[in-house]
């Protein structure tokens, strides 16, 4: 039996894949006021978004040989969602804190620019959890991850907006922790196997 050697070249993507949801989880504990992102939470959200992008790129690279269309086209909404669904909201929170603007006033000012608001926040924002949900469905359908991993990832993706729209901190923490679990699994597989091979039915 051939011993599988680790693939250290995938380590940056694997680390980022874990850091993304971990930083999002940490940001949840620094919400301020009426469950808003402030300086600390906003900064953690931006850094977590960068990590998610690197992690998504690692998954795309792992799928490129067997599923080039999924890998190539799937990375576009993944990056769009991470930038707009994560970093943009984080930067908004940081800027609001810096300039002393509350959440209601920020939304009112944003409403004066509907095209920009939709492209960045109201369309771009949902792209992040939708990407995670689509990823979970694809990885499950292609038998690249165990059922439990895909179901947890899907659950985290569904809970992500459900926590942030009404700003419920407990649900937000739970959703982000749920995403850490499959992220650790995916990161481990990337390093150990150098990709995401199809699994035998169990």
From TrEMBL:
Transmembrane segments: 12-33, 39-63, 75-99, 119-141, 148-165, 171-191
Keywords: Membrane, Transmembrane, Transmembrane helix
Keyword hit for Transmembrane: yes
Highest taxon of the lineage: Bacteria
Keyword Transmembrane helix part of the UniProt annotation: yes
Name the UniProt record assigns to this protein: DUF4386 family protein
Annotated organism of origin: Actinoplanes philippinensis
